[in-house]
Fold these 2 entries.
Entry 1:
Amino acid sequence: MSDYSLLKPDFSKGLLPVILQHYTSKDVRMMGYMNEEAFELTKKEGVVWFFSRSKDRLWKKGESSGNVQYVKDMHLDCDQDALLIMIDPVGPTCHTGADSCFNLAPSFTLKDIESTISDRATSSEEKSYTNYLLKEGIDKIAKKFGEEAFEIVIGAKNKDKTEIKNEAADVLYHLGVLLYNSGVSVAEVEAVLASRHESKNNFKGERQTIQDW
C-alpha cells in the first residue's frame, strides 16, 4: 500500500477524474470528479468524497444510501491529473443498486473463497462442510486437499476438461480451508508471488521466480 497522504494532484486543469476500483476483486465500480477540497476530505476521512458537477457542491459517496466507499489506497497517473482509488465498499457502489456503474461480467477470486470460509468458520451453521473440516483439524483438511489434488491428476490423464475444471475448483476451496486453518491469508501468498515476480535474484536453488516458471 502506498502512502497516499503525499499525493499532490494537478488541479490546474480543472476537476480531477477519479476511478473507483474494488481493492480485492479489481472490479471498476464508478467514475466521478474531485476538486481539491473533495480530495483533501477523502484523504482526511478515509472515505470517498466527490464534487458534483450537476449540483455544484461537495458530496460524500453514500451520504444518502449509507453505501460509503472506504479508501484502501490511491494512485495518481503519470501526468498527476487522474486518480485511481482502491476501495472497500459498503454495499453497492452504483446509485441503481448495482455493484458497479459499468456492465461487468461477474468476477470471483481466491479472496472471495477466503471470505466465504471465514464467514462459515464464524457462523453457527452446524451443517457447514467448512465447519466440519475445521473442527476435524489439519489432518482431515490435508487429507482432503491431497485427495482433490490427485483427482486433478486423474482428470488430466483422462484429458477430461470438465473433470479438470471441477477438481481444480475443489482443490482451490480445500487449499483455502488449509490456509485459513494455518492462519495464512491469501494476501500473504500474493505477497510472496509478487516478491518473486519483482526480483528473480531473491531466491536460490529450487525456489524459482515467476520469470523462471
Entry 2:
Amino acid sequence: MHKRTNIEIDVDLLKKAMELTNLNTIKDVVHYSLTEIIKMNKRKRILKFKGKVKWQGDLDEMRSI
C-alpha cells in the first residue's frame, strides 16, 4: 500500500542522505530510511536474547557449507 503525503524535510539532511546512499530521489531516500529504521529496531530486539539462548551447533561446519 502506498500513501501520498506532503512533508517538510531539512534540505541539508536530505542532500547528505542522497550523497551517502547514492539515491537520486526524495522518495527513494525516504523509503530507504524507513526500511533501515525498521531493520535497526529488529536487530535491537534480538539483543534482548543475548545470554538467554543456548547455542548448539558447529560454526566451522556451518561456515564451510
